[in-house]
Write a structure and sequence with these properties.
Length: about 180
């Protein structure tokens, strides 16, 4: 709504790539309200295609205490690193592939009512094998899956792929 503006903000907690802010907003009528905003590092995600196949990673995710089947992704955690460079790095770290080309598909705002995170999603075409360089136990104990893109889309539709960035990336890749 036009006229609503932020008039104050203070940090409540700051840990790692996550900060919690208390934000005060003012409405056009002069009334104010307090909201909470989770500030996260932005991220990249990549739909890696090799011909008609997509390569996915199945890894443990501690916030939900489950393994998820996803497109490779990671936070922009290297100072000054361009998103395209981070996307290529994440492919190599997580699934052991490098892209011939990267095409920006979209910038996904994950949950704007609470979080300011933006995930830049790319399509990687012509991927080829490289040494996998997993970072952390989740990646070391992850499984890499290759399947036809059409099968991955079926997994989206039947609820097996539930991760938002993966759903968006796969559907956009399939619509090209």
């Amino acid at each position: 709504m036009a006229g609503i503006r932020q008039i104050g903000s203070r940090t409540i907690a700051d840990v790692g790539f996550t900060r919690l802010d208390e934000v005060t907003i003012e409405a056009p009528d002069g009334s104010t309200a307090v909201r909470y905003a989770l500030r996260l590092a932005n991220a990249v995600a990549v739909v890696p295609l090799d011909g008609d196949d997509v390569i996915l990673i199945e890894q443990y995710r501690s916030p939900i205490d489950q393994r998820l089947l996803e497109i490779p992704a990671g936070v922009l955690d290297i100072e000054g690193e361009e998103p395209e460079v981070a996307a290529a790095r994440e492919l190599e770290e997580e699934i052991g592939f490098t892209p011939r080309s990267l095409l920006h598909l979209t910038d996904l705002i994950t949950s704007p009512g609470v979080v300011d995170e933006v995930i830049s999603i790319y399509l990687a075409e012509g991927v080829h094998h490289a040494d996998r360089k997993p970072v952390g136990p989740e990646e070391r104990y992850a499984d890499v899956h290759r399947m036809p893109l059409s099968e991955a889309i079926d997994l989206v539709h039947n609820g097996r792929i539930r991760d938002g960035k993966s759903i968006v990336g796969l559907l956009l890749a399939a619509s090209r």
